[in-house]
Design goal:
- Two copies of one chain form a homodimer.
- The first copy, chain A, has six helices and six strands.
- Mean pLDDT of chain A is about 85; it is low at about 190-200.
- The first copy, chain A, is an alpha+beta fold.
- In chain A, strands 3-2-1-6-5-4 form a six-stranded antiparallel sheet.
- Chains A and B meet through α1, α2, β1, α4 and α6 of A and α1, α2, β1, α4 and α6 of B.
Chain lengths: ~200, ~200
């Protein structure tokens, strides 16, 4: 009878889901704190590396027509804020332009879209998963995960990266809210009259 | 042998966790859209009612020294934006003032903190779970869930409501970002010089 292996499989899957939920809860907790953005991005990188057991995790943010490396577990500190990619090239640029997830399980460096991705060592890794960072319907960055060895990303991992990309987008917007906007009392009247609440009333 | 009941229990728990994860993903998806806030709040209420199988779900937002009902599955449309509670009374006011979750499994209406909670029918319900809505470290509202019959809220349900309260807080801040702020290109230089990214470099 196959009950016992099935049991073990379910237990594994359950603990995996619990970890994923915990990851989202920790990201959510980051969003209500008022830590510097760089710290928040680094915390998200650390959470993803732990959960996905990946060798590299990088967060690029859009700066004009370029993407700037803003957080990573793999790049040296000196690369943060300095490694820049054109939006026109590389897998990362492709993800930003097309606003689509890319998942490659092996030979990522041979992908036709790859091309002079950057000078980071991680660019010789086999497996590559990349999601756009989206804020209020605009691409504001790219979130990359890489494995040195071939790795088939699951649908769940893709869904996870998509959601984390959205959460980072919110974090970015929140970081841009200036203090004066935060100090203002949230006025319901204003929101009602501004159509924010009115639309469905 | 107890393997089969255990298997069933695990399967149930797994499907529950999958639903919870799905709930977070749907809330995350709401955050990147640009729908009117009222619609987004109503969508969250609908998701929570479905997941928690509660009889009532209400979102109050802070407006000066009051809390204003802004979304609900249970109150008539006419109550939205009109039912107001003082921050000084009721369980909802207590949650806002103390920034703490409240969980009551039965007789919620007899709680000493309850007191003239509001004129909503839901205020005769037995079970009550309430979490502060927090944005960048400030209480900006309260999220209430109620069951007509006694109901012991699990640690998971409490954790869920806490996280959804944080996510709603982010949604509120995002709704306050004016269009001009959104149109501005995200300038990394600006963020670096503004100390947002610089702090941990």
């Amino acid at each position: 009878m196959e009950t016992v292996p099935k049991l073990r499989e379910l237990e594994l899957r359950l603990s995996r889901l619990e970890e994923e939920l915990h990851l989202f809860q920790r990201i959510s907790r980051l969003m209500v704190r008022e830590a510097p953005l760089s710290q928040e991005l680094q915390s998200i990188v650390a959470l993803l590396v732990e959960y996905l057991e990946c060798d590299s995790c990088l967060i690029y943010l859009v700066d004009g027509a370029e993407l700037v490396l803003c957080a990573s577990n793999a790049a040296p500190q000196s690369a943060i804020g300095r490694v820049r990619l054109s939006m026109e090239e590389g897998l990362t640029g492709w993800v930003a332009r097309n606003r689509r997830l890319v998942s490659i399980s092996r030979d990522a460096f041979n992908d036709a879209r790859f091309k002079s991705f950057s000078e980071l060592e991680a660019d010789t890794y086999e497996a590559f998963l990349s999601a756009p960072i989206i804020a209020r319907n605009r691409v504001v960055g790219v979130l990359n995960v890489q494995h040195k060895l071939p790795h088939s990303y699951t649908g769940e991992e893709m869904e996870l990266l998509t959601t984390v990309g959205e959460q980072i987008g919110c974090l970015l917007l929140l970081a841009r809210l200036d203090r004066s906007a935060l100090e203002r009392t949230l006025s319901i009247e204003e929101m009602l009259s501004g159509g924010l609440l009115a639309a469905s009333l």
